[in-house]
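REQUEST FORM: STRUCTURE PREDICTION
Request ID: SP-0412
Submitted by: Lab K.M.
Chain count: 1
Length (residues): 174
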Amino acid sequence: MDIFLTAYLKSEEEFLESFKPGDANKTDENGRGLVLMSLQNKHLPSRYAISNFLLDQGAPADTTGNGGASALHILFGQVSHDIEQDVRLARRLIAGGADINHADDNGRLPFVDVISMKFTDEDLQPIYDLWFEQPNPDFTSESRFGLSPLSAARKLPFRSEILSRMENHVLDNS
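STATUS: Completed
RESULT:
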């Protein structure tokens, strides 16, 4: 099994057994970095361990995958999450060059994935705080389907807190 599938499907132990120096900077035939595959690992402890290991090894955090999805799209677009681990990893990805305002090929921003997560506003507060710590978070740019972080939050009655926070931010910075 190649190192990309191992990062995507296998445990941290199996990944480390297969990993060779220099693998962290490899890209697959589509130009995707290895960390993009590890971020999709369904086993949460392995997802975080492999991704952090790769970042420790110098893996680029600013590569994009299918459809122009960034590492932040992929991290927050998963079904299962450990919010505390997500925040730590997202912080590292951002420090490594992942752009919170990177639009995928359809113009969708990663914060739309955050808003769509199946957690309460209270649970997601640490991720929200991380976004607001960044310079110039974009909450208004619409995808080609007309979806912005603001419009996504407006469609969800359980996103009233973050909706208010985004609206205030937009007003304060316009």
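NOTES: The chain has a mean pLDDT of 95.
Reviewed by: T.R.
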